[in-house]
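Why does this matter for the project? Reviewers at the last site visit asked to see concrete outputs rather than summary tables. In response, this paragraph embeds two records directly. Each consists of the residue sequence and, immediately after it, the corresponding structure tokens. Nothing has been edited or filtered.
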Amino acid sequence: MKTSSDKMYDKFKEYDFSDAKPVAETPPLAKLQKEIGGKSRITIRVDNEVLAIFKARAEIVGGNYQAMMNDALKQFAQGLKLTDAERETIHEAPESYTKASSAVRKKLRAR
């Protein structure tokens, strides 16, 4: 698995941020984050199997597992059933995503 799915990671991985102030303590950054952030940092406990599935799918399609989990939660909150969400995703997704899903299932069966 990659060290980070963030595309900017390699650019900044050597920087030393140990003395950096938190965003909340830097008023211009806090204001910017509030205006365009739209997300909240939380701590959540999920089953290991669920996390493994999202991480495997993210690795296969080159995405971010946290964004995928957010999308799944958003669809659930909007009242979509899992089968509806899957159907919608498969309908809209490129062929590579469908292939990725079958690769994830194969990985999980191999366990």
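We now turn to the second protein, recorded in exactly the same manner.
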Amino acid sequence: MTRSTLSRRNAMILVAVAVPVLVVSACSSTKSVSKTDVETQSQQQLSATVGSQVPAIVCPGDLEAKVGTVIVCSITSAESGAVYDVTITVTSVDESTGNAKWDIKVADQPRGSST
């Protein structure tokens, strides 16, 4: 039962969502979204999508505000402790407003599982 419950929940989370956030400009000309903002905004959007609070998303660092940039974050199931990859891909950057949007996709299988 736990496996099917996780599968249903993951199926709901698999929805790709666009998350608009403010792009923070560092001292250099490279623009990025802070690690904290990526984690917080992504968690909030996934929670809104599935209709309940999802566990914290943990990312390895800032997200470069460049279309096509990909980072792989993680989310840990509160029920099983299994860790799932969360792939975040920048889909657009509005240079005039400084907003970036990205898609979020949670893996359907936990890390290290064999299919």
